[in-house]
Amino acid sequence: MSDIIRRDPRTEWIARNRLHPLHGTVSVSDEVEVRGPSGLLRKNPHKVGFIGPNGIKRIDRLKGNAAASGKGRKGGAAAEVQLPLHQVENPDFYIVVVPDMVGGRLTGHDKDMIGQAHKLINGLQSSSDEKGAVLAVCFGESKEEGFDTAGVDRLLLLNGDEYQGYCPEQQLAALVQVENTYQPKHWLFPDSVNGGADLGSRLAARINERPAVQAWLVDNSTTLSRGAGGTTDITRGTPRLLMLAEECAEPIDETRHEALDIELEHIPTVIAQLQDQGQVAVDPNAIPLGEAEFILSAGNGIHNWDQFHATATALGATEGASRVAVDDGFMPRFRQVGATGTWVTARVYLAVGISGAIQHMQGIGQCDKIIAINTDAGCDMVKGAALSTIGDSEEILAELNKLAENFRQQQADGSDQDAA
Amino acid sequence: MQHKQTEQRFANDLNIVSLISVGKHPQSGRERRAEQDGRAVELGMSLNAENLTVLHAGDPQQNALRSYAGMGLNSIRVLEMDPAADAIAPLSSYLKQHSPDIVLAGVRAESGESSGMVPYQLAEQLGWPLVSRIADIISVEGGVAEILQALPRGQRRALKVRLPFVASVDNAAQEARQSAFGPASRAALDLQSTQSTTDVIRDEWSEAPARKRPKRLKKVKATTAAERFKAATAKAQSDGGKVMKNEPAAEQAQAIFDLLLEEGVLR
Ligand SMILES: Cc1cc2nc3c(=O)[nH]c(=O)nc-3n(C[C@H](O)[C@H](O)[C@H](O)COP(=O)(O)OP(=O)(O)OC[C@H]3O[C@@H](n4cnc5c(N)ncnc54)[C@H](O)[C@@H]3O)c2cc1C
Predict the structure, then answer these.
(1) Kind and range of the H or E element at B56?
(2) CATH fold of B2-203, please?
(3) Which residue of A378, A404, B30, B103 sits 20 to 30 Å from the alpha carbon of A77, by its own alpha carbon?
């Protein structure tokens, strides 16, 4: 066919006649710019711009950027990009990381450590053409889904029965087996109270390595670590075993990794000398507010204080309060959460009748999950919460109290049966 | 303030060694009784004050040792050596010779490398179990000790371990009693000479006062001006939390309760 675009009077006529049965097929196209029947480029004014949040049509002068932000949440989710995959076929060497996996998920500290491991690998690869991989050894149940984006190339997941509960000796045996099998270039542990420092020290003593603890600036030749209780900096050669301080390196965020599962055979089962008798119930209100894991916090929306205290006891939650509740004399000053009170780090923060003033929100910025009970669906606390229930605090707390007491009753029955 | 004399909690012939080191005040840098080591001595005294050996490897002239003695000790045993030398060898040979039932130490020292490896290395060399970060020893019966271990967020775990063992004492343990000047100056220092090897690896290190660590900045990876503007001005958006508006209170409470169960905060 020739390239000359010819007029088609019939199509032109159909395009002009909105009532023609074929009208839809000729002129209505989703594109803004359409090649008209005459061969000229035509702009379809009905397709220009987008409908703004208030229902009014807006013309996009930002070439697509504004439209993405206008869509808000939905746009953010759809725009999730697939990061490039970093593959290591046959690694010549390994750097082993042993994350804490608090609650079965990688912590921020763990991710920093994996970032550090990749930094070390890059340094080693620049001086030779050997390829290295990060091997993560995780113990116990894992709920983590982001091993790939966190930068794990190989994953050794040990979650057999022998790894349930507190079992540092069994974990040590597994790590020694890893040491014998892979001869890793470096061992990295998070220097944390969640078990990383303990396990790292055990391994260091067993394989006779001198570790650097609280290491915070590490490259392939030198390590800067804190000594003397954090008051001095020690500069030394980088050892094989490192216990890393928080924020030692940037976490991985530009690549996706394989996180291939690997198996390790012949891990001896050790006879544990430390017998785990389980966690002991502690009085939640004896735990300092800044450390508490689960806080039930009261604000101006609480009218029945006896019920609030009873619910906190039944749930086993540490009590917190907003400034208003404290100023009004319902709660002691040391229970105040917020800018002028305590900055809390709870994993779950249950805010009852708290509006979410900025001074209060500052104090709960580090909490993982916020639950709100409030009568006002538009308040800032509800906006920031993972779960909000709109209703009267007294009614909801009464129901919650019932559930908690049932739960405790079942627990007590269960332990009675165990004893019998 | 008068300190209530803690009673010995179990009458027994437990042989306990508490290891002490020279502490360092975090602000002034002055030598002092180390916080955690003080707690280790306190725990040892409350278990069995008669049979407690308080052991230090280093310089006997140190004034800080006297502040441990001021807790009411009759004597402190000092293995004389260069404080910069490696303390593991003399300590482990002492412990092998005297074979105590319990060895208590702090988690990390306040001076020197403060790597916290001493209890681990001693346990490894002696072949004893190590219990880290203990808060208390509840009972010792039939050669088995019941221990409370300190966990993060103020939680505790109960453990059982057969004697002998090495334990590191956490800050959650009973605070050390006040040190009194009179008993401190009266206490005897029981010196033993040892051979120690200098720590050659450490000689290659350089030490300096701690530098301030840079704060991590929020990095914005933006390609266009509009994106940068958005990142700088946008309020933290809610991540689309679930809102229950018209459900009955019972259902709402159930949803909250389920979330609490899922997060594992109900014990
Ligand atoms: C310098 C300065 C420092 C401050 N520091 C702090 C601080 O550290 N911590 C702090 O908390 N505040 C602080 N504040 C105070 C803060 O600004 C707010 O005034 C305070 O947090 C509000 O507390 P609230 O949410 O409990 O009360 P309100 O703002 O009165 O909110 C009560 C909420 O309860 C809801 N409600 C009412 N009745 C019910 C019901 N029956 N059932 C369910 N919900 C109900 C309402 O809808 C409302 O959302 C500070 C203020 C200043 C000026």
Answers:
(1) strand B52-58
(2) Rossmann fold (3.40.50)
(3) A378
